[in-house]
Amino acid sequence: VVVDSEIATVLRVKGLLEFRCQLDSTDGQLVRNVISRTFETLRSQVKSESCVLAVSDSPVIIWPNKDAYATPEEITPSTLCEDMHQWIHVINLCLMTEVTKPGPLSAPILTKTVLKSHFVNVTLPLDCVVCTGRSNTIKEYQLIEALTHQLCEMEKVTLQNMKGMTLLVPEPVHFLLPEPKGLVTVVYPVGVPDSQLVAQRKELHEQFELPDDRPYFRRANAYHFPNEPYKDGYLRNPHLALTHPTLDNGKVYLVQGIYSYHHYMQDRVDDNGWGCAYRSLQTICSWFQQQGYVERPVPTHKEIQQALVDVGDKQASFVGSRQWIGSIEVQAVLGHLLGLTSKILFVSQGAELASKGRELANHFLTEGTPVMIGGGVLAHTILGVAWSETTGQIRYLILDPHYTGAEDLQVITDKGWCGWKGPDFWDQTAYYNLCLPQRPKVI
Amino acid sequence: MGRGYIVQDDVEGYLSKLCEQKADPVTGLLIGQSSTQRDYVVMAIRTPQKEESAAAARNSVDKEWVTEHARQVSRMLPGGLSVVGVFIITDADAKDALTTLRQVRVMLTLSSSGLKAWAHQIESGLCLIDGKRLPEDSELTVGQRRNVRQTYTAQLLITTVRDENKRLTDVIQQCGGSVSVTGAIHSRAYLHSNKPKARLAEKLLKRDVVSTVATRVQMMLEELLASDQESKGKLFCLPHRIFCPLKVSGPLCVCDYQFSDEGLSEVTERLKEMLDIDAAEEDLDTRQETTFEITGCDITPGGHRDMHACVLCPDCPPFCCLGVAMATAVALLATAASMLYLNDI
């Protein structure tokens, strides 16, 4: 996923704010008043002179409500923003509080109350993004406005989800919507699963005029910032590093969304020589998980084999073996483990694949899911086609699960483990089955 | 093998005078700053007389009393100054004296667990010196002449640290009341002038911030527990910090805490008794912290004026959490360089 190049910079402010208050009574309205007042205090804090933004990985510190900066000598406030643009696409800022002021000031007091009450103590995870074109001053980025707006959203969500004396922590999540909407932040209550937030998502789809048959606001759809490494170590969308072929009157049709590259030897499983279809299946599962259709993590070889035993397709001895599987088994597992339907496309000879341009193009247009292809003795994943309706020329974007090396994008793209192949890539006389997973029509 | 000390002239003088006294043994504390290579001693304080001590007891070292004296003196030292040693002046065998010395231990602990969370925030905070974020290993007096007194202003920036141990269900808890601390304190630390590093300045300053608040809260809570008052909402002024210069001309100051119902004469008395300093009321610096003025509308019960509420459980010992010092004014002083270059120790 690439952020629109029209956006010069994305500023992201993250920080934790302590939400603390004491509830003297359990009366619903009084409780809500105290909660609202406490949020108001936090908003004042953010607008105060003691609010500080520290630019990550840099010596720059900004007092946004005082127009003051702490920077090394080489950077003056006016060059500040220009320089920031040059460094990185996403600039991370940390929200801090200054606890010092020039004196003298009132000495401290200790207040004591003895009263049965409830003590509320929550750490609020503030996380704002501001996308804007080039601006000259920090104030124009409206970071403080973004923070206070988020506190208002958090107040709403907190009050909405209060049940008696239980309180849910509000948590911001960022989503990248199709142009021109860009990055949008939604505050969700922590611990409430996607299945209970359907009404909220419906409202959001209406608000942003999004189609109502595909998810944009599930937690798994959260935007992944370019400078955040994926903790699981898998590569995402290696095909984005490639240059796509240009055919006469041809168009490129690609997988939509994010998948992980699964291949031989990963996860300390030595499946060299037999696991290619399993890996292709894992790539497909990773797609459904990251688009938010399923919460289940990518299944292991054993889990895949167990699923086939559970549906009656294989004997119990299949589990733990090194037996190959094909498109039909892939379809069965996607159905049993993930509740998905898939279409099977059969060609009696590899040479026929050249004529399947239109079908594949349509698949990537409407479903946009990765395709598993098995035949001869090999299995692969098709991530897209380049196809010309007039000349019939065709190229296939292949993700090869037979790769045994490390997650090195350079090697994988240079050596063609993820790359564009011609019709001669296929065994011209062997028969092939393709599994085309269908996208569920839900939000 | 002893450690090397660099000692100020007047300390030597003070110790010499003690030698002339009839009492034997004479014990006391050495006050200064430790560095990796050596200790700098700026002050020596004889152990005050314990009123009830019998004549016989006067001839032996009361280790608990020396320790208690050290504990109380520690409260009166600003950042950078601490008890670096114990001395004993005696005609007795040197070996016995050393053994006695080793048994005296001084420890300063942060007893209230609630303050621990706040202290952790301060310790992890970002320190700016003279408005700049200095690399840790950089020296503070780079480019400055020796023997020049230098004052630096520091700023502290903190973030909230996420508590991984806090479960989601701990969001709302029942409690029997609360104790909170709000307001501002003046924090100060002194540094030896032998190429002090920014890292040391930051550490000493943060330590002083935490210890001055902890000391005062401790003093206040001891008072509260002793008096056992039952009123619902009570406001107590924490004692405020008063500085007193060690020498009229010198930059180093010690400090004491003055409760709102005390006069300055009580402060000078304590300074004499605990630190053996003869100070006049005019010498005291009372300008750094002012008394909190209570007006009718300022504090509302359960109000939120800079409130950082704490939990007081009926069955648990009281503990205070997060009394954030709203502001401090800080001066960092490098000690006079004359201390440094003494050759004979």
UniProtKB/TrEMBL annotation, chain A:
It holds the Pfam family Peptidase_C78. GO terms for molecular function: deUFMylase activity. GO terms for cellular component: endoplasmic reticulum; nucleus. One of its GO terms (biological process) is proteolysis. Keywords: Hydrolase, Protease, Thiol protease, Ubl conjugation pathway. Residues 89-230 form the UFSP2 second domain. The keyword Protease applies. Residues 251-435 form the UFSP1/2/DUB catalytic domain. Belongs to the peptidase C78 family. This is Ufm1-specific protease 2. It comes from Neolamprologus brichardi (Fairy cichlid).
TrEMBL record, chain B:
It comes from the Eukaryota. The keyword Phosphoprotein does not apply. This is Protein odr-4 homolog. May play a role in the trafficking of a subset of G-protein coupled receptors. It is found in: Membrane. GO terms for biological process: intracellular protein localization. The keyword Translocase does not apply.
